[in-house]
């Protein structure tokens, strides 16, 4: 079966600093794959390479078997890749509903139609209906008419996810999806991501420091250290690895 995402032999340097060194991974269709490692291991840079925010110096990125190595981020979105960030990126000055409507219009490739927003008139009914459906998916429908800027942090993260889902990706890249969340928000987010993965048969690649989240979500885990893959396998294999425990997990996960 063709991987949803395949990275092979990725190298990336910033000046004299080598950040990624021969990194390879495969994300199987319909699975959740976690990338973990200490701060500075190269996780965020890897996500930037995979999403097209920056290009690798060497190596290849394939999306559903098609070479996307030279495709910029907006084209990878059209290839079916959606991405969220460590700090939620939403339009705080407009409503929760309008944030999702704007994402729907971006998907349609018609950003000029969003002039309705700035002219103070109603968005087309079809867009509003679809936006409300997306908000229901992330349990935000009751906040639809509130300004995005007044949402609690965990809700803003869910709104960013809703905007990403509005693009109808087949794969999600989630960079620290639980960062800054309260324990209660994290529990809800894990349940939400598990539901999205199962109900939408979506592939997910995520980075995350909370190992309880990683082991609750991941089918496969890749471990980075100083820009290199030091282990990759099923969660139980990673927990049992002496090297991973020494470098990152500690012995509480043994």
Key phrases:
254 residues, alpha/beta, Rossmann fold, 2 domains, 6-stranded mixed β-sheet, 4-stranded antiparallel β-sheet, 10 strands, 39% helix
Beta-strand portion reads 15-25%
- The CATH architecture of the largest domain can be given as 3-Layer(aba) Sandwich
- Helix segment tally: 10
The main β sheet shows up as:
6 strands, mixed
CATH class of the largest domain: Alpha Beta
Question: For this structure, what is the CATH homologous superfamily of the largest domain?
Answer: P-loop containing nucleotide triphosphate hydrolases
Detail the poorly predicted runs.
none
Oligomer: single chain
Task: Output mean pLDDT.
Answer: 88
End-to-end gap: 33 Å
CATH topology of the largest domain: Rossmann fold
The main sheet orders its strands as 6-7-8-3-9-10
Number of strands: 10
H/E element sequence: EEEHEEHEHHHHEHEHEEHH
Structural class: alpha/beta
What is the general shape?
Answer: globular
Total domains: 2
- Helix share bin: 25-40%
* Rg over CA atoms: 19 Å
Descriptive report:
The protein has 254 residues and is α/β, with parallel strands linked by helices. It folds into two domains: 8-90 and 153-249, Rossmann fold (3-Layer(aba) Sandwich), CATH 3.40.50.300; 91-150, no CATH class. The chain is built from ten helices and ten strands. The chain has a six-stranded mixed beta sheet, with helices on both faces. Helix 3 crosses helix 5 (125-137) and helix 3 packs parallel to helix 6 (153-165). The longest helix has 18 residues, at 183-200. The mean pLDDT is 88.
């Amino acid at each position: 079966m063709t991987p949803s995402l395949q990275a092979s032999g990725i190298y990336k340097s910033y000046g004299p600093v080598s950040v990624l060194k021969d990194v390879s991974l495969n994300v199987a269709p319909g699975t959740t794959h976690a990338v973990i490692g200490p701060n500075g291991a190269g996780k965020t840079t890897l996500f930037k390479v995979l999403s097209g925010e920056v290009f690798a110096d060497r190596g290849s990125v394939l999306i559903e078997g098609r070479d996307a190595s030279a495709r910029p981020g907006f084209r990878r979105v059209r290839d079916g890749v959606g991405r969220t960030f460590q700090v939620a990126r939403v339009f705080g000055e407009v409503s929760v509903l309008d944030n999702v409507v704007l994402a729907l219009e971006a998907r349609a490739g018609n950003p000029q139609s969003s002039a309705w927003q700035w002219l103070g008139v109603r968005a087309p009914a079809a867009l509003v209906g679809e936006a409300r459906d997306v908000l229901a998916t992330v349990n935000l429908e009751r906040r639809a008419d509130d300004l995005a800027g007044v949402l609690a942090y965990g809700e803003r993260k869910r709104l960013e996810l809703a905007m990403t889902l509005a693009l109808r990706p087949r794969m999600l890249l989630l960079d620290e999806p639980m960062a800054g969340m309260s324990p209660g928000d994290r529990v809800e987010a894990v349940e939400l991501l598990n539901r999205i993965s199962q109900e939408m048969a979506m592939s997910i690649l995520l980075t995350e420091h909370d190992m309880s989240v990683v082991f609750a979500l991941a089918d496969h885990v890749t471990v980075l250290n100083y820009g290199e893959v030091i282990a990759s396998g099923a969660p139980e294999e990673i927990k049992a690895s002496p090297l991973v425990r020494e470098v990152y997990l500690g012995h509480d996960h043994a």
